[in-house]
Amino acid sequence: MKNFGRMTWASLAVLWVALGIGCGSASGQTTSPAGESTALAVVDASPKSLRAGIDEILAGKVDEGIADVKRAHERSPDDVLAAAAERAVTAYHEVSAAAEAQRQAEYATTVLRIQRGMMSQDAVADLGDRRKALRTKIREMSVAYSRAVTSETFAEASEKTLPQLQETTLAKLAESRKALAEATAIIKELPEESTYSKTFIQLSESADASMEALEAVWKDATFETPAEQKETAVALMEAEEPLYDTLADLETVVADQPWKISLIQARVAKQIAAPADKMREQAWYVEMIGKVEARGEAAKELASRPWRSDTAPADTKCDACDTIVAQDGALLVKDGAVACSQACANKFDSTKWYDSLTAFAGLEDLEHDNTTFQERCKEVRSHVRVLRLYGGTPTTTTRPATAQVPESDEEEDDDTQISWKDMTEGIDLEMVKKAITRTSVDYVTIPDYRKMTLGALRSIRVLAETPQSANSFPKLADEKLRLEFIAAIDRLTENVREKDNVEYSALILNLNNVDRASQRTVGIEKAVLAMEFADGFLSELDPFSNMIWPFDLNDFKKSTQGKFFGVGIQITKDEGEPLRVVTPLRGSPAFEKGIKAGDLILTVDGTSTRKIKLDKLITMIMGPAGTKVTFEIERRGLLEPITVVVERREISIQTVKGWKIKSDGNYDFLIDEANKIAYVRLTQFSEDTSEDLRAMLDKMAKDGVRSLIMDLRYNPGGYLRSAVEVANEFINKGRIVSTAGQQTPNAQEINAREGGRFLEGDLVVLINEGSASAAEIVSGALKDYKRATIIGERTYGKGSVQNVIEINRDKAYLKLTTAYYYLPEGRRLHRETGSTQWGVDPDIRVSMTPKQLRRWLDIRRKTDLLLEDPGEELDNDLQNQYKADLPLNLAVMVLRLKQIQKAGE
Known about the structure:
Elements: H1 9-19, H2 47-58, H3 62-75, H4 80-122, H5 124-127, H6 130-146, H7 151-156, H8 162-188, H9 195-219, H10 226-253, H11 258-272, H12 283-304, E1 308-311, E2 316-317, E3 324-325, E4 330-334, E5 337-339, H13 342-366, H14 371-390, E6 403-404, H15 420-424, H16 429-442, H17 449-465, H18 479-498, H19 505-520, H20 526-538, E7 546-548, H21 553-560, E8 565-566, E9 569-572, E10 579-584, H22 589-592, E11 600-604, E12 607-608, H23 614-621, E13 628-634, E14 642-647, E15 649-650, E16 656-657, E17 660-661, E18 667-668, E19 670-672, E20 677-682, H24 689-702, E21 707-711, H25 720-728, E22 735-740, E23 748-751, E24 762-767, H26 774-784, E25 789-792, E26 800-808, E27 812-822, E28 844-845, H27 850-865, H28 872-884, H29 886-903
Parallel strand pairs: 20-21, 21-24, 24-25, 25-28
Antiparallel strand pairs: 1-4, 2-3, 3-6, 4-5, 7-27, 8-15, 9-10, 10-11, 11-12, 11-13, 13-14, 16-20, 17-18, 19-20, 22-23, 22-27, 26-27
């Protein structure tokens, strides 16, 4: 490598033009094209220091490298290369410093919210009945505020609607402030001041001040011209910002179970925390972990205990439905809990099991290396599954005549109930035996049969020991028979534990023994035993291996049939809430009908979406091409829901996107025109991805692109062939990926071929934990060959191959992991329980906080959806998107430095 400070005229001129430097010095003296030296000489800018700084950055030591580059420029301020490098690192450093300040503030806010949540949980008993009234008022406040118009809606609204939006919002803000004042009054009535009351009043005063400021902006809003409307929208956005955290804090301190909010926020804090924060060593963290674990254990123990019959004293309230039971009325009780019917007893137990699952699932995520939390989570999840499937109310159970039904009692969620009889129809023991045999032969590794057998027996035991299972299997209500059956399972379990060697035949033997024990005692249907036994042993293998039973077959076949017909919306759903539109897809029927991001779909063809699970709602929305689906939509800023009828058609998803969408629907890929740096985003790997990418690479070549950023963040994967073809555009020889399993111990290699479109230019690949499967194969191959600099966060770690094996023609199949993917250097991609290495690690690690991610994705969704080029507005949005995207800023800096590095060779 030649000195960075010494260049030919030709290479220096190219660099000047590319970096926008110009061909002159501060004094205006120039060098002639013939290379004759004038007063401007290329100064030797401590090339070793500059080169070392760039190398440090490329090796992942970004802060150290930036400091070295700046020192090199300070020593030789007239050196062209040092000046160009200094500008590149300074531009990134300004963005990263602001992002770090945001991270620290967000972490501090999140920690404070965690502490407030745990403090509020401790105050629950002291507040008594006031807590419910407080929650009601804060809920009224939040609902009123949510129906006010946002700055984004204001900015996009037509001129005619703006006066009405202003009037509506001012009314909703007044309504929200009134509810907040009433909530504060409840707290001020408390007989004694406490930490809780002080905190609540502080938050309420802060929220009211922010709402008053927002109200003032709305009152003074002007919108006679587009410029005024835009200026007002910016002012509204700035006034809205302080309210988000304060309102979230208020909702935390009045939550029904604030510890759950704290647990969620602790998982957020884990994402935000830097190593220097030493989060797991902090006193608040250790205390929270202990309290949540205690709550999880207490909820599990309470849910496990049986109910007993009793009679009600005066004014007894049901803990499940708040019904007041008449004196001497029939009750079910246990450990201070009261249920007015078997249905309410089931509901109470279900709530406790879910509380326990929430606790241990959260703890497992926070303390991923804690095997106790892993086992507790698995155990509780099994109980929840059994309760959901078999714990339903017997048909003879009704609400007792002594129960007074409250006016607000909600209807039961009948739409989502699936009968276990439907689920198990057509299943038999022979299917399970065949699945055991095929697992022993075809699984990716030799299975741990002891672990699998214990998992199967544990699944049967959970079914038997869950009291609510007697609602489906009456003989389990006979305590003697139930205990006899459990004792038989325990003997089989102990026998497996004591054996020196456990083969696959032990699974079949124990299945037969379980069946015989059931027939002697509790008489559980063979189909149920078969399903529970199979699910028990398969759960010990991996998350992707499972049975496809007769009940699942139709849905499975639909999922494997190529094209689908729908309306073109991405959707999400919170439990008990309406379906929410994440974004409509550009050019889709939903987009053409004006459906917007953030819309709440209240009904689908007249059926409420609140209590229906997401997968069922997707099925309801999809259908044959040409048919129609009717949505009732609640949109922020509109007083009444609107009805939208959309015709289904084939949805074509564009998976290759550039930086800027043009008015003709094509993309501009240049993110840095001066330096010819292009940007391409692959959203997934479909059948058309590689072909579309090749076309775009051909266009880039004509445009003189020198460097490329390929964005694979949140790419969930797709077709293996597509991934190989994409990688092949950047690699023209060697192994791209290999697979190996028990049946194929010698790796099956997939190699590159000659003819890639982008074999020489500098390349950066952006990844994060949402990059999975095929995205990991591409980024991993490019990393192993050092063909690209990988920037971002470690990928998901989904590197396994599943095959669908026929067990019984047109009745049952086994989806089984049969192989793992291996990167060119031989490393396995797949993440296993307890593993410390998986996926693809970045060369340069950089992350974003949840709030930063939301802002970036919100802007990106907006730029993705523009149908026509609005000129300056789109350019401004793209500029804001770039500023909000720290990894992308780092990628651009790295490619600029690589160009400088090459120019100095």
